[in-house]
Amino acid sequence: MLPDAGGGKKRIDLLVATHQHEDHIKGLDPEVFADIKIGNIWMNVAMDENHPQAGRSHKLRGFAMRAMRGFAEQNLALSPELQEMVAMYGIANDGAMEGLRTGLPEANGIEAKYVHAGMTHDDLGIKLQGAKITVLSPENDIDHFYLGAEADETLRGLSDATAEFQARAAPAANVAPTNISAADFRRLQSRMLSNAFAFADLDGKVTNNTSVVLLIEWKGKRLLFVGDAEWDKKFKEGKSNGAWNTMWNMRKKLLNKPLDFLKIGHHGSENATPWLDGSETETEPSQILDAILPIPARGAAKAKAVVSTARKNYKTIPRSELLAVLGERVANVRNYSEALQEKGLDPRKLPLFRDFEKEFIDSPQPFRTDCELLLTEKLFVDVEIEP
Question: Which residues 6+ apart lie within 8 Å of 105 measured at CB?
Fold first, then answer.
């Protein structure tokens, strides 16, 4: 479906790597794109190893990466969710980042660009007619907005715990050292595991919140692509913040309008699309949702949305209750209980049906790739936006 670029190649004018997680960069191998001419490559500024306002975030990621790779080498018995967390820091990520930073740019005679909130396609050397692309997130000061002022003390404590564990641990995996009792070593190992996964979780949150968020305005339509941006209850200056809260407080003029299309963030996760989350009172996240996807006052909804999702190791991805909430606000919806039964499929066979699907499978939901795959046997969902 891509246009021809000449010389037997197809063409992609803009390739955006939203953030440095395996499921968002894994396929960005120069060999995969050998027959495709790429015009521009964008990454978020946190992916710039030399970005001066992401030093502490890089330090956090470095520790998390070393710890997770160490656990992978030890073949520890971990839950599926923790195994997936370890996998996110695998060596394959290094190759993907190398491809983004040097391989793909060199192959296409271009320079990859690190982008931050406030930039537009004009600033980044792309000429468009009848359209505008604006970067809404992340803010340039990564450490200030997404890690916060308390990070130094936290990182120091982590380094101390790491040093203690490494000083006492034996070279062989899962073998207790002789300079500490077996019981004390198990407690120390448990503490280290707990600390390491806690900080890997924090790094994952920072990485998600530095996702490139793009607002595309095209012939009067507003389309929002949010990567894995997360939300918190409220924005706090100088603290660890969600990207949605930061956008709402720093870029409200652009965000505070209804959308025509939303690419639902983070595979339908409960913390990636602002909503009330069971609260009966208005919150900052609910204000954001009401602004971008207001409940239709009368008549049918006009906005559209789609979520790329599958319920695997993270059991609340997707959060079906959230999808039901969004189903009240968008036009392209489906009752998947009815649709699957019409196809001769049993909705009760969906993964973890009783725990997470049963209560909401009869509610209209935006198109979701896991159920659409069962219905159409396609790995993707087409959404048409009329100009």
Answer: 41, 111, 112
Burial class (CB in 10 A: 0-12, 13-18, 19+), 160: exposed
Nearest to 366 by CA among 238, 259, 262, 284: 262
Q: How crowded is residue 93: how many other Cβ atoms within 10 Å of its Cβ? A: 17
Confidence of residue 172 (pLDDT cuts 50, 70, 90): very low
Lookup: tokens for 60: 């956090």
For the full predicted model, state whether its pTM sits above 0.85.
yes
Grouping H, G, I as helix, E, B as strand and the rest as coil, residue 77 is coil
In a 13 Å sphere around the CA of 136, the CA atoms on its Cβ side amount to 27
First to last CA, the chain: 20
CB-side neighbour CA atoms (13 Å) of 272: 31
Residue type, 156: R
Give 132-144 as a DSSP string: EEEEEE--S-HII
Query: Which strands make up the sheet holding 4-6, listed edge to edge?
Result: 4-6, 9-12, 36-38
pLDDT by residue (tens digit) across 313-352? Answer: 788 899 999 999 999 999 999 999 999 999 999 999 999 9
pLDDT tens sequence across 47-60: 999 999 999 999 88
Gyration radius from the chain CA atoms? 22
Question: pLDDT digits over 82-130, tens only?
Answer: 777 777 787 778 888 999 999 999 999 999 999 999 999 999 999 999 9
Torsion of CA 8, 10, 13, 14, to 10 degrees: -120
